[in-house]
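Before a colleague's protein record goes any further, I have to sign it off. Would you go through it and say whether the fold makes sense for this chain? Take the sequence as given and treat only the tokens as open to question. The record follows directly below this note.
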Amino acid sequence: MVENLDRGGLERMALDLAVAQKQLGHQTSIYCLHERGDLAGEAEAAGVPVTAFHKQPGFSVGVILAMTRALRRDRAEAVQTHNPGIHHYGTLAAKLAGARVVLSTRHSPVDSKGRPYQERYFRWVTPWTDTIACVCDHTRRQLIDRAGMSATKSVVIFNGIPLSPYRAQTAAPGSGLPRIRFGTIGRMVPAKAHSVLLDAFAIVQRELPGAELRLAGYGELEPALREQAAQLGGTAQLERVGAAETRAFYASLDVFVLSSVNEGLPLVILEAMAAGLPVVSTRVGGVPEVAPEGEVAWYCEPNSAAALADTMLAAARSGELARRGEAARRLAWSRYGIEHMAANYQALLDKSGR
């Protein structure tokens, strides 16, 4: 159960997990609290049906009853919700429908809209929740310390991604020096702090005339960011990259940069690592847990263009781009495949259903 299947890391993870579970022989469905979203067609093409409940603003008993009927129709044995915006709906419907297991995956310490009442609802239905799986230890610790989440009911299951698409196209970091290409991909929203990255790149560009920056994505800040990038004289490019083009995008880079001020465990970090890229990142969320400092990544504190620029320059001048890129690729392929994540959720389902 998700709020919708729009394009985003949470939605992509939920879809990939549902497909992986189907490939393991399970019957899987995706329920959307609001509308279907852009990824619904991809889900159905993979044999995973999508049901939307079109919830309007305000609490809706009708949606709970509609979900209950759908769960009974689908003979659901286990319900997995993603983030607190839908968890109280999913938990109540699961119990009314007689599902044996209720799991919650928390992708971030805060809900999608930052609404405090959703955290209250989340705590209220915790007694009927078997396990809360957090995508990184940072999220788990924050929820225990600040939101009063049950420590005994919570575990960490790192995100995973399909790795096979990255087998054919890999990056060659540092191979084009003195030209060095930094890049990032993600929604153009305040939490990603792309404006800070552009300010940092302006500093980098003065020190490294051969530097380039590619930003791929879309979102509410795209017009403002395009205007900001235009002032850098063409060496910073904003572009929209389709799903089929993401591997080529990663392969074109020397360093992947994450400038976010708030994260859980972004899939783009795992994708960049799978493509063989070293990482420059702000120290946010679970990123340091999967991309070790000194081995794969360089880190700085968030929301500082000067600090990010210094870290980008340190990476560019390190002479370690190829070594860290290869370490990133080995780590991603050994730990962060979708099969690994699906197996961990399967073990959790088995344990919770006993």
